[in-house]
Design goal:
The protein contains nine helices and ten strands. It is α/β, with parallel strands linked by helices. The strands form two sheets. Strands 6-7-8-3-9-10 form a six-stranded mixed beta sheet, with helices on both faces. It has a four-stranded antiparallel beta sheet with strand order 2-1-4-5, covered by helices on one side. A hairpin with a 2-residue loop joins β4 and β5. The protein binds adenosine-5'-diphosphate and magnesium ion.
């Protein structure tokens, strides 16, 4: 669903009767190397799904497939009921419904914070500059950075830059947000402010898929925790269940290192 123009401050309400994300028997290979080996995952609107697992297990590839940055080798992915492998589908439109935040913030260094937030609104959503600025100011308030609109990224801390990156995604009024290790590049003392913003989004009902090693966040905010290993989901459940009593030996071994 497309948000009405000018409604930048609030989270859009996605359709409630279809899953936000529905992944069936998803396989992805790079050449001979099969990286995803049959993933099944259904995420309902408003769920916060935390994805955990060792390096190389396919977490980023899974997220990138959902965000249409990678084409699946086989299987199906539906976003809000739309089959993204259907050649007639408007992928550019679907992409605007999905916000993505990476470990590296990827802000435009030569632009102000405000311009970082307005450029895609104007170019992709065709919002008028005044409207785009109003939306940008509203989302900057949500991430606690109203006073940084005129700053350049290099003048901000890593935590502030990542909050700008989140604000930039929010300015497009996405129905769901994907986070790929959003705090992994940050100094430890800056992690909390980013997690707080993410907690706020979750509390407002944003559908989120979060690759993270922050088990405290997963326990507190996650509605589900998924453990991936070698291209498969080997365990899932509520974060409390999985963290308190992991069933799979791979999950046990991984958690014993990170907890
Ligand atoms: P994770 O995020 O869990 O660390 P990734 O999804 O990044 O894992 O990577 C899973 C595997 O896929 C790794 O072995 C990685 O080298 C490989 N891989 C990821 N992207 C590519 C690519 N574009 N080309 C070739 N191999 C890739
Ligand atoms: Mg990764």
């Amino acid at each position: 669903m497309t948000a009405p123009l000018g409604s930048g401050a609030e989270v859009t309400t996605p359709p409630r009767d279809v899953p936000a994300i529905d992944i069936r028997d998803l396989h992805k290979s790079f050449g001979e190397h099969e990286v995803l080996k049959g993933i099944n995952l259904t995420i309902q609107p408003g769920e916060v799904v935390c994805v955990v697992g060792p390096s190389g297990s396919g977490k980023s590839t899974l997220l990138r497939t959902v965000n249409l940055l990678e084409q699946p080798t086989s299987g199906s992915v539906h976003i809000e009921g739309v089959d993204i492998l259907d050649p007639d589908v408007d992928l550019d439109h679907i992409r605007t419904r999905i916000g993505m935040v990476f470990q590296q913030f990827n802000l435009f260094p030569h632009m102000t914070v405000l311009r970082n937030l307005t450029i895609a609104q104007e170019r992709v959503l065709r919002r008028k500059p005044a409207e785009a600025r109003a939306v940008a100011r509203a989302v900057l308030e949500r991430v606690g950075l109203t006073d940084k609109a005129a700053a350049h990224p290099a003048q901000l801390s890593g935590g502030q830059q990542q909050r700008v990156a989140i604000a930039r995604s929010l300015s497009m009024n996405p129905d769901m947000m994907l986070f790929d290790e959003p705090t992994s590049a940050l100094d430890p003392e800056l992690v909390g402010e980013v997690l707080e913003v993410m907690k706020g989004l979750a509390a407002e009902g944003m559908t989120m898929m979060v690759v993270t090693h922050e088990m405290g966040f997963a326990r507190e905010v996650g509605s589900r925790l998924i453990f991936m290993d070698d291209g498969l989901i080997v365990e899932e459940g509520t974060p409390r269940e999985v963290l308190a009593a992991p069933q799979h030996p791979r999950t046990q071994a991984f958690l014993s290192k990170v907890l």
